[in-house]
Known about the structure:
Blueprint: E1 2-3, H1 18-32, E2 39-43, E3 46-50, E4 57-58, H2 59-62, H3 77-92, E5 105-107, E6 114-116, H4 145-154, H5 161-177, H6 190-199, H7 209-218, H8 229-240
Antiparallel strand pairs: 1-3, 2-3, 4-5, 5-6
Amino acid sequence: MKLGYPIEASPEWAAAEWTALAPAREGVILRDLGSAITIYGQWEHGTWNAQPWHAGTDLQQLWAPHRTREGVSRPPLAGALAGARALADLHDMGVAHGDIQPAHILVTAEPARAVLIDLALARGVEVPQRFDFPYRGCLVHYEAPEISRSVLGEGETAPTRESDVYGFGASLFMAATGWRHVEYPDDGSRAEQRRAIVGGAHRPVNVGGVLGRLINDMLEYGPHNRPTMREIYKTLQAEAA
């Protein structure tokens, strides 16, 4: 069960009302994607949804034993492969997740499967106007440069499959190394963080093998220079075979 209510307005969160609408918006999206047992509605402070509980370990926890900031990280491919398949399947349905981060990729044990959670910011599904709200970016650590640039300039934008690919690469990098892919002050404002993302220089990818090469490709600055999620999945599948 998720309950949505307005967060306290602040300079960082001027549009606080979206948090009240997010559960119902996610409920609409989950139903459209085939979750017949998801329900949603309104309560006195906002909206709510009830959805299936997914057992699994998020990618950040899953790779904790293999994480290193020194030397080369070599996490097992199973978690990345499962996450790539889940995101590729979502993209094949014409939907961009919009909030890809390691905590939103839940991986089961053998055989490894992944579920993508927290879809309230997704685009590609028709949402009733009473539950909809503009997309103003996601957790900046995983935001693509074109998303950060649009949010800085226009205040809002729309996630794409290409920005999801970037977010997936940044998520794999964080889970494997513990580093944000772009360096900026921990106490910097979101605007400062976004300007660093737009600057375009990411940390060297100290992840070994095909996974490291794919992360580099996913973190390409230009959206159309990035591989698709289906291409990423197929590459990982061939390597794991």
